[in-house]
Amino acid sequence: MKIAHVLGHNSNWSIETHLQQNIGDYFLITAFTHGIDFDKKKSLKSILPKSMIDLQFYGKKSSGDIIAGKLSEFPFHPANCGDDEITNVYFENCLKRSIKFQADKGFRNVIIPHFYENEEVKDIIETIKKINDHVKKTRIEGIKYFMTLAFANHIIIDKIKVEEILFACTDMDIVFDGYFVTCETKPEFKRKLTTDIKVLRNLSKVFKTLKQQEFETIYAYANWDALVILAQTDIDYITIGTYENLRKFDIRRFTEDQSGGGSKGYYFSEKLLNMIRADDITIIRDTGNLHFIKNDRNIFSDIILQPGFLWNIHKPDVNKNYLLAIERLLKRIGSVGDLIYRKELVLNLIEDAIKRYESLERNYIYLDNESSNYHLNIWRTYLRNA
Amino acid sequence: MTSIALSQGLIDHFKISEYEQATTPSGQKTVFIVKIEGVKYALKIIHIADERFEREVKICQQYNHITGIPSILKVEKYLNDTIILEEYIEGNDLSDILDQYKGDHKKVIDLIFKIGTILKPVWYDKYVHRDLKPQNIRIRANGDPVVLDFGIARALDEESITATGGQPLSWYYASPEQYAGQKNLISYKTDFFCLGIVAYFLYTNRLPFGNTKDLIAQTFTKTIIHIDSGNKYINEFCNGVFYTSPSDRPRKIETFLKLAQI
User: Which residues form a coiled coil (chain A) (predicted)?
Assistant: First the structure.
C-alpha cells in the first residue's frame, strides 16, 4: 500500500513532510489547483516521477466558471465546452485527449477522468466501456491505466446501482489496470464523516470486489474513515490531504465558487480517531486530560498542543499533524497481511477510542459536534457485522 | 407421453426409415429420433419458429465444429413447420445417471471442466446459456458431455428476447440475478453460478440452497453463500462461484476453469 499526498492549496506543506519526515510515498496533483503548468513549478519538479494527476472532469462545463480553479487551462478539459459542443462525441474526445496528455507528460499511472454523473448509471457504464475499447487499442507498454469511478451520493447508497457499475467494471473485456475511486459521502451538518452505514457498506464492497478481481485500487480524496475500508481489504493507494476539500469529495467544488472560510482548525487525534475542535483543546488541557488525545512521537502535535499556540487552519503544523498521524495509522493497519487480524486491530483501535471518550466524560469533558464520538459506534457495528 | 405420428409425406421427404418420439409434443416443438440412411438423427419439428428458436439454431450452427455442442445438419421449412435435423447424441441425459456421480468429486469436477471448456468460445462470443442443468447435458458413451438446448441462451450484445422483467428459468438451477429478474446482470458469470449448483447436485444428489423457491430466495439475500458438500474439492469449486453478486465471481474464464481442476 502506498500513501499518496493530494497536492492542492499549500501543497508545499505536503511535499515538505515527505522530504523532511518521510511521510507518504506518492503524490496526486490536482489540476484544479496547479493548472497546465504544473510541471514547471519548482516545488513539484522533484516529485513528478512519483506522481499522478487528476484532471478532474467531474463538473464538466460548470468547472469553467469557477474563478479560483485552473481547469480551463487544459485545452481538452470539458470546462471549455461550448454550448454547441455538448455531445457524447465531444466528451469522449476530451477523455481520449486527457489520456494522451498524461502519457505525453510521462506519467506511468494514467488516471482516466470520468464525469460526475448524477442521473443514469447506464451513462457511467457506457463511458467506461467506450474508454475501455479505446485503451485496448491504444495502450502503451509500461503505463498503468486507472479508470475513475466517481460515486455520487445517491449512487453509493444504492446497492443495486453499485452492483451494476461493478458488474461492468469486472467484465472479462476490461483492460484497465485499476480504478481510481472517489465517493461523495455527504456528512451531516457539524460532522466531518458520514455515519450512513450504506455508504460504508457499499464503498467497502467496491474496494473488496475490485481487489478480489485483481485490479489495483486508488482511494482518492479519502478521509480518515478510509481506516474502516482498509480494515477489510488491501488498497494500493490511499490519498491523504491537508485541507478538508482534499479529503472530502464534493461536486460543488467543481461546479460553484466556494470560499474556504476561516477556522481555528482541528486537532486530529490518533487515539480518538477523530478531529477535535481547536477550542476544545483548552479545556482538555486545563483539566489535565490531554494524554487521552495526544498523539505520541509526533513533532507537529507537540508544537500545536503547547499552551499559547495560536490555532489557525492555515498554519502548516496543524495540517502536518494530520498527515503524520493518519499515515501512521494507515501504514500500521495496512501492514497486517491477514485480513482477520487486520479487522481485529481496527476494532481494537475503535474500542480504545470509545473508552477514551468515556474516560473524558468521567472527567466531565463532554465533547460535542465534530469533536464528539458520533462515528465510532457505527464503525464498530459495521465492522463486527462485516 | 402423448404420442403422435410423423406424416407419410414428411417420412418420404426426409427418407426416414425408422423413428421414435423423444419428447411430449408441446405448442412449440416435438422431437423425434429418426434413422436416415442407417444414421440416427434428432429431428425437431418446430411449430412456432420464433426469435428464440432462430437464436438456438444460430448458436448451434456457429459452433458446429465443437463436439460438445450438437451439430445442425439441416434447417428446412416443411408445410407450416420448420424442421431441424440435428446430430443425435448417443448416450444418456445426465439427469438419468446421477448416481454415477454421487460422492465422486473427481468425476464431478472433471465433468464441469469439460462443460466449461465446451462453453469457453460461447462465453467469449458473449453468449450465455442461462439454463444449465442435468437435463440439458447429455453424456456420450465415453463420458464426454454435450451441452444441449440453447433455446434460452442470450447474446449479450443483442436485445433480449424475453418480455421485460420476466426471464425463462429452471428455478432449481437458477442464479441469484435470474431469481431477482435482473436481466442486466446476466452474463457468463451466470453460467458459472449455475454450474456450481450442478456440481453440488451431482456430488450430493441434493440441491445446495433447498427445494423450495422461498428457501432459495432467502439464501440469495445473503452477500456470501457458503456451502459445505462434505468434500473439500467440491466446496472449493462451489464456494469459488457461489457469490450473490456476479461482480464477485471469477472475472476470467481461465480463472473459472482453474477452479474446476484438481
Answer: 343-370
